[in-house]
Amino acid sequence: MSFLDKLLEGVSVELLPLGEYADYEQPTKYLVKSNNYNDDFSIPVLTAGKTFILGYTDETAGIYKASENPVIIFDDFTTANKWVDFDFKAKSSAMKMITTKDESKALLKYIYYWMNTLPSDLVDGDHKRQWISNYANKLIPIPCPDNPKKSLEIQQKIVGILDKFTELTAELTAELTAELTARKQQYSYYREQLLSFEEGEVEWKTLGEVAIIGTGKHDTKDAIDEGDYIFYARGIKPLRLNSYDFDETAIITAGDGVGVGKVFHWAIGKYALHQRAYRIVPNESNINSRYVYHYIVNKFYSYIEKTSVSSSVTSMRKPMFEKFPIPVPSLEEQERIVAILDKFDTLTTSISEGLPKEIELRQKQYEYYRDMLLTFPKDN
Questions:
Q1: What is the pLDDT of residues 219-246, one digit of tens each?
Q2: Class of residue 217 by CB neighbours under 10 A (exposed 0-12, middle 13-18, buried 19+)
Q3: What residues pair up with 229 in beta bridges, in sequence order?
Q4: In this structure, are strands 229-232 and 264-273 parallel, antiparallel, or unpaired?
Q5: Which DSSP helix (H) or strand (E) runs through 115?
Q6: Which residues on neighbouring strands pair with residue 140, listed in sequence order?
Q7: pTM
Q8: 122 neighbors 47 (Cβ within 8 angstroms)
């Protein structure tokens, strides 16, 4: 018998409208008046979106005492929500403050955990106020609602487990994040050391001398959802196409758009290319393609900043690539540098092998157990 089965033994669970157990308040009384935020101030200013804490204010009036009465902060348009148990002021009236109507019947923390198991059912372009039109009508599972004492006991046990799991997940994620930050700093240090050369130490060439540099022929509108080949467009995230332009090992970057001069892709095999994206294909026998990749990733943007005629880099042209200076140590030295930097690259950025994947797995593990505890048997 599972833990949940034991917890619910002999107990019925009813699905009841959330609006019967939770109430809301507009944060009108707690809105911040000044935009003069400073980290030295003590009161956080909250928004319900991903930003959450916009900054800190020195205003002392109109503060909601969540340290005494916790609330769920709910974005009425996106349904994003946060558990808040510290004093705060609010930024926008689009944010709702959710409380329980009767803590002896439904724990607010139980409601919060359950709300986060709900799949998003928002429709693009839907700007309705979601709490009244949608969430208040959601059916929340309430164990034995006719026996509030027993119901509360079950809710408290579920909340206690999830609180502990949340704490452990946060601790582990913090440790992994700290480890990832340290490894990235270490990676950056060694990359800088390995790719810096003294005057006269190595031969210098331009990128145009050692590589083929060209663009593609497609537009972003050509992309399809289930294409067979990777399509490198102008954005950071590759798209898909059902045809390919090149079959090679290349370094790909956008000529303009988000991440221009900063984001580079390592392409192997068949791929399609946007007409404003660039392919860089080293074509000399004494050049290791992966060495060129690491050098460009580390040095290219600072070069562009110095040579750009404007204060900010918004687009690039082929001559900017062709004139990029690149040091050419011996092939053996290039391979040694690549071996070291590839190990750091795998550790810090690989989805399947590095620490980011471990962090992602811990979050999925937490969500799995949370959903399991809050998904009651359908025949109960």
A1: 999 999 889 999 998 877 899 999 999 9
A2: exposed
A3: 241
A4: parallel
A5: helix 108-115
A6: 16
A7: 0.70
A8: no
